[in-house]
């Protein structure tokens, strides 16, 4: 199972169905991804909660008149095929309206931050 795909698809589907929040099983990687999505303005907030003895990442979404901020997501690197990009290969997503989430040696960050820091890494997904 691809837990990152499950998380981003859960966020996208919750937005399209008009929900203000969604939850997903907790992991440190998912928390790092949520931090990047918050910095980029795709989600309002997130917090770690405990439900029935298990840690859960609770994510609040941006909705304007029940229209979600997130229009789409595309998984790039998968467990079956890892995709790595150099800092010089990182491009804008949807002419700057979207974001690339990349896992670098310095942690998970957006494509803009990675290009500024001249870091490459595993391209996880794009979101717009």
TrEMBL record:
<dbReference type="GO" id="GO:0019843">
    <property type="term" value="F:rRNA binding"/>
</dbReference>
<keyword id="KW-0699">rRNA-binding</keyword>
<keyword id="KW-0689">Ribosomal protein</keyword>
<dbReference type="GO" id="GO:1990904">
    <property type="term" value="C:ribonucleoprotein complex"/>
</dbReference>
<dbReference type="GO" id="GO:0003735">
    <property type="term" value="F:structural constituent of ribosome"/>
</dbReference>
<dbReference type="Pfam" id="PF00410">
    <property type="entry name" value="Ribosomal_S8"/>
</dbReference>
<dbReference type="InterPro" id="IPR047863">
    <property type="entry name" value="Ribosomal_uS8_CS"/>
</dbReference>
<keyword id="KW-0687">Ribonucleoprotein</keyword>
<protein>
    <recommendedName>
        <fullName>Small ribosomal subunit protein uS8</fullName>
    </recommendedName>
</protein>
<dbReference type="GO" id="GO:0005737">
    <property type="term" value="C:cytoplasm"/>
</dbReference>
<comment type="function">
    <text>One of the primary rRNA binding proteins, it binds directly to 16S rRNA central domain where it helps coordinate assembly of the platform of the 30S subunit.</text>
</comment>
<comment type="similarity">
    <text>Belongs to the universal ribosomal protein uS8 family.</text>
</comment>
<dbReference type="GO" id="GO:0006412">
    <property type="term" value="P:translation"/>
</dbReference>
<comment type="subunit">
    <text>Part of the 30S ribosomal subunit. Contacts proteins S5 and S12.</text>
</comment>
<dbReference type="InterPro" id="IPR000630">
    <property type="entry name" value="Ribosomal_uS8"/>
</dbReference>
<dbReference type="GO" id="GO:0005840">
    <property type="term" value="C:ribosome"/>
</dbReference>
<dbReference type="InterPro" id="IPR035987">
    <property type="entry name" value="Ribosomal_uS8_sf"/>
</dbReference>
<keyword id="KW-0694">RNA-binding</keyword>
